[in-house]
Amino acid sequence: MRVVKKKVLVDVCGPVDLSGDEGWVAFDAPALVGASLRFVSGEPDGNRYRVRYYRDAEQQLRARIWFGPETEGPPGHSHGGAMAAVLDEVLGLAAWAAGHRVVVGNLNISFRNLLPLEEVVTVESTVISAAGRKVMVHGRICLGETVFAEAECLCITLPGK
Ligand SMILES: CCCCCCCCCCCCCCCC(=O)SCCNC(=O)CCNC(=O)[C@H](O)C(C)(C)COP(=O)(O)OP(=O)(O)OC[C@H]1O[C@@H](n2cnc3c(N)ncnc32)[C@H](O)[C@@H]1OP(=O)(O)O
């Protein structure tokens, strides 16, 4: 019997510039929360996402993120769930970076524009409030004046230390 090997085509993308804006300081996410955030941040040279975290001058968390070909949804553009995963990670992490030990309880996203693949975009986050166990974080995925998605994220602090 003749065995035909399936050929897997791997699209190898070149290097990507994820440098931050002037005044941004690199932020070490694994040092704060451990190495579990593999879904979005796990393959810095892969073809899904490439991510680098920063804090801006106001100490808010920022991310430069490249949406690679493996995030495709509509042809040539990011899947909405791919943007949701990014917002889940970045906005949850923003609460951690502000000193709150949380998980995301509710994430409300509006998709505003199709996000072209292989684009480097910025995720902005702002911790809006912290009251009791509830930490509200707002954020958006944008490039210049173009907003691709914006979100309101309710984080809930975990019990215990
Ligand atoms: C194992 C973990 C180790 C972690 C250590 C390392 C982690 C490293 C993290 C890295 C940074 C994060 C980045 C990734 C972020 C994610 O991806 S997290 C994963 C996605 N999220 C989840 O899977 C969360 C699943 N949900 C849950 O675990 C539980 O529902 C929650 C959110 C902890 C809340 O449950 P609970 O502790 O029983 O609290 P509960 O009493 O129901 O609610 C407390 C309050 O919050 C309100 N509330 C709760 N949920 C909601 C909601 N969905 N909408 C509105 N209000 C709500 C309640 O109404 C209540 O309000 P009050 O009555 O006090 O006014």
Secondary structure elements and their pairing?
Blueprint: E1 25-26, H1 29-33, H2 38-41, E2 49-55, E3 61-67, H3 80-97, E4 102-111, E5 119-131, E6 134-143, E7 146-157
Antiparallel strand pairs: 1-2, 2-3, 3-5, 4-7, 5-6, 6-7
EC number: 3.1.2.2
GO molecular function: thiolester hydrolase activity
InterPro entries: HotDog_dom_sf, THEM4/THEM5_acyl-CoA_thioest, Thioestr_dom
What does this structure look like?
The radius of gyration is 17 Å and the shape is globular. It starts with 24 loop residues before the first strand and ends with a strand. A hairpin with a 5-residue loop joins strand 2 (49-55) and strand 3. It has helices spanning 29-33, 38-41, 80-97; strands spanning 25-26, 49-55, 61-67, 102-111, 119-131, 134-143, 146-157. With 161 residues, it is an alpha+beta fold. The model is unreliable at 6-10 (pLDDT under 50). It binds Palmitoyl-CoA.
By DSSP (H or I, 4+ residues per run), the number of helices equals 3
Number of strands: 7
Strand line-up of the largest beta sheet: 1-2-3-5-6-7-4
By CATH, the superfamily comes out as Hotdog Thioesterase
Query: Can you summarize the main beta sheet?
Result: 7 strands, antiparallel
Number of domains: 1
Please tell me what the overall shape is: globular
Q: What portion of the residues fall into strands of 2 or more residues?
A: 35-45%
Low-confidence stretches: 6-10
Compute the gyration radius: what is it? 17 Å
Hetero ligands: Palmitoyl-CoA
List keywords for this structure.
161 residues, alpha+beta, Thiol Ester Dehydrase, Chain A, binds Palmitoyl-CoA
